[in-house]
Design a protein that fits this description.
Layout lengths: L1 E4 L5 H9 L4 E6 L9 H8 L7 E6 L4 H11 L3 E4 L4 H9 L3 E6 L3 H7 L5 E4 L23 E4 L7 H5 L5 E4 L4 E3 L2 E2 L1 H12 L1
Parallel strand pairs: 1-2, 1-8, 2-3, 3-4, 4-5, 5-6, 6-7, 7-8
Antiparallel strand pairs: 9-10
Helix pairs in contact: 3-4
Length: 195
């Protein structure tokens, strides 16, 4: 199972998460969000990551052109959006950029986007708030790659893991303070995901 550590705000945490075996690191660029950081800082961190770690720009662009510009300026490998319609997602993917589309754990919504994204990220509530939900209700079967996010930590990840998603995405559940990762929690989260 793949593991994405999201809400990375500094290079020290990025490198430590990479060394702990994270498959992907998420960088938030959404003004007003607690873990949002500037594109130039994201670009600086991304340029220093090893070639086997995927960097994910988490943002809310209004259209496909803006999405492509944000990815280019951030140096990210792929984009995770909580916006964009299917046509815009197709346009971004057609430009060679991988796309993760965030959706609620709702079968109808997931089906709308399943063919237009490389993966669907299932999250409930306001994105990035760490709101948990009944992970057993996630319609992981309606897409090729399902990622479960929202309120995960070392105590509850088994409830999501049993759904056999492509990946789990954690942020606040492995922090010692908002925006600061606790490396012991990161290592333990990754270890439990892979056992």
């Amino acid at each position: 199972m793949k593991v994405k550590i999201c809400g990375i705000t500094n290079a020290e945490d990025a490198f430590a998460c990479e060394d702990s075996g994270a498959d992907a690191l998420g960088f938030v660029h959404v003004p007003g969000r607690r873990r949002s950081i500037p594109l130039d800082r994201i670009a600086g961190i991304c340029s220093s990551l090893g070639p086997m770690t995927t960097s994910v720009l988490v943002c809310m662009p209004s259209d496909d052109r803006t999405a492509l510009d944000l990815v280019e300026r951030s140096g990210g490998d792929i984009i995770q959006v909580h916006s964009l319609d299917p046509r815009s997602l197709d346009s971004v993917r057609g430009s060679g950029i991988g796309v993760i589309r965030a959706v609620r754990p709702d079968r109808d919504e997931a089906t709308t986007y399943a063919e237009h994204a490389d993966a669907l990220l299932f999250e409930n509530g306001v994105p990035g708030t760490g709101t948990g939900f009944d992970y057993s209700q996630t319609p992981v079967d309606c897409c090729r790659r399902a990622i479960i996010a929202g309120g995960l930590n070392i105590d509850n990840l088994e409830r999501a893991k049993v759904m056999k998603p492509y990946a789990l995405d954690v942020s606040s559940g492995v922090e010692s303070a908002p925006g600061k990762k606790d490396q012991e929690l990161v290592r333990e989260f990754i270890r439990r995901c892979r056992q």
